[in-house]
Amino acid sequence: MSKYIFVSGFLLATTLLTSNVWGEQTSTPASNTKLKKLHKFTAEKKKNAAGESLDVVGNRTAIDRQRPTSSSYHFTGQELESERINTLEDLQQLSPSINVDAADPFNSSISIRGMGDGGGQTGGEANVGMPSSVGLFLDGVYLSRPSMMAHGFNDLDSIDVYNGATQGTLYPANVTAGVIDIKTRVPTATPRREALFSYGSYGYMRASALVSGRILNNLFGSISYNHTAQGGYIKNVRYGNNVNGYHGDSVRTQLYYTPNESLNFRLIADYSAERETPTPVFYKSITAAGINQFENMSSALGNHIVTGRATDLDYQNYDTTQQVGVSPQISWRFGGGWKLSSISSFRYFSTNPVMSDPYSINVYYNSGTNVRDRTWYENIRFDSPQWKTINFATGFAYSGESLNTNAISQYSDGVSGAWYKSSSYNNLDVYRYGSLRDDYYSVYAQATAHPLKKLTIKFGFREGIDDKSGTFRRLNKSPFYSGILSKTTALPSAMVNVDYDLDSLTKFYIALSYGEKAGALNVSSGAANKAGFGSLYIKPETTESIEVGLHKNIPAAKLDFKIDYFNALVKDFQTQGYDTDTQQTYLTNAGNYRSRGVEYTMTWHPINGLDITPNILYNDTKYLSYENARCAPEVSLQSHPPASCNLNGRPVFRAPKVSLSVVGRYEHRLNDKSSVYGTVRYSYRTATYATVDDSPSAKIPAYGLLNFSLGYKLKVHGTSLDTSIWVNNVLNKTYYRSLREGDYGSVFGWMGTPRVIGGTVGVHF
Question: From CA 166, how far away is CA 310, in angstroms rounded?
């Protein structure tokens, strides 16, 4: 109860709000920012209103002085809008280090360089008891579930993708794989009125509107609305309709109050709702020992197998998601250059899926996991003045989560018993109830020292305590009650980052980090059935990493590039197993793996008006010790299969060996009021295993996506008009976003969007 009183009290005390996270917008090194003018690559020393010395990059607001140098990507809201990047899943087309698995709203997961959410479930539902090691932040607020951003972006200022664990002492300790830092625009005195409308094939629609400006003296506000929709592109031959579409709405409002130069408040509130029909399609089935069990069962019971962008479903899937959030924030600069800042938040998230089997016969229906998730967050930070050779930041953070799940699986009369070869399934309703309470407290400190003119050293630590508890109950089939589970774990993090300026245009850096991802609880009976009651407790996952990089600016060639080598060792890898008897996913520690490779980013301006930005990642991931892994169905369907398999030396799932994106943009000014432009974007990923067991049948094939647009800009009497025509997936490439293993060696996949042709009209006045 005292925890609720603490957070509620602070929320009330900071009911107004601040600028962004610590009063300063974060920016990245210039090599990772697509800038139009070469002079923007050079950092300048500026004095702010409080007299502090801050690094300013490309005329943007000051960066956080404690931000360590490491591989990262920076994208402005304008860039993302012009490239039609509207969701986290879209973002991986620009940032090759990101991999997003978004089979449905709640089961979304993110990895960076092959590290992140250890899901990779082979079947069944995702387990809610495990956090992600990729930190997702919205205006400084920690989002505990990637699905909290499934509704898409609204009123963006920028997105920064920080690769690796070097950010782990500034962010919560679960951030051992990297950070996706999303920022929205702060209201200012300058009036902004914007409207945008896009329409395309397959019923694609995106409409947004924003009003921002002064309300009263020193009080500014904004309100933005966003609607997105995509018609289905999977044909259900049973009823002749299309499925796998969605539509959603979001509203975001802000107040920004600055009574004087030293103090500012920011209050942010948002609401979003989305409804979709997530639908997998049949991908393939496995023949083992000369027998294809799935085809045989389908033939015997009348299941119609459909391939391609089509399915035959007697019952269709629906999923409704809603969330609301409030975040008061404050920033206060006081005597001597000291600064106090605070971010508070409360969020409520719910999803209500009605899911059925992917077959034309009624095996199960009206099933799914209803989720109610409440989270709250507080981060208080002190920043020192900028002294001659050192400055530091220290603070306290707390995040809490209360999550409840209510799952049901309803089996039919007759068909279910025949399909699973047991009459016990006929007219069976299986209920599963889970709850999870997670409280994380931490203190942290990080400093930046300049012992020599060309040498900068950043070092920091974070000590966290994670207090987790939960229960699980299963009724009617393999009955199970976990009792009250609880686990308290200390989670230390540390980092050292050394930068050396070889000359004014060349920087060399080395970064070392250690972090621990919080332990987990099995909100599932599968683990206890497989490995005993003690397996309901999952150990923390640790990450040790090193990164070495070179950043070079070559003005004569109008080129700026960055190359780095990284090597990360992950121990006690948290991932998911699967109990075939209860058809239940469960969590487990699965040994160690490594992620190492080379990343290259570049910005090139070969001629006036032309920007070319290639980003390339080579990532060699490998299980170093994973002896008791679940066997892939190619093995388990053989006669006398082993109880487990050894995956030592095998690639880690959801980690393409090569990922790249290349963006080219050319803009030609016709006169003082108008210009024309064109963009081309190509992204490519090599084949990757979709499930943790490295099943060859569940391996997503390599694919590349080509997109382009042509546009015209006109500015008259303070009004800007931007019109464009565009094509996504120009070559109409068939590709899969995710694959999952089904019954009897079947594999089902969630397909990517086919070619979409559309147009956009945007007005700013």
Answer: 45
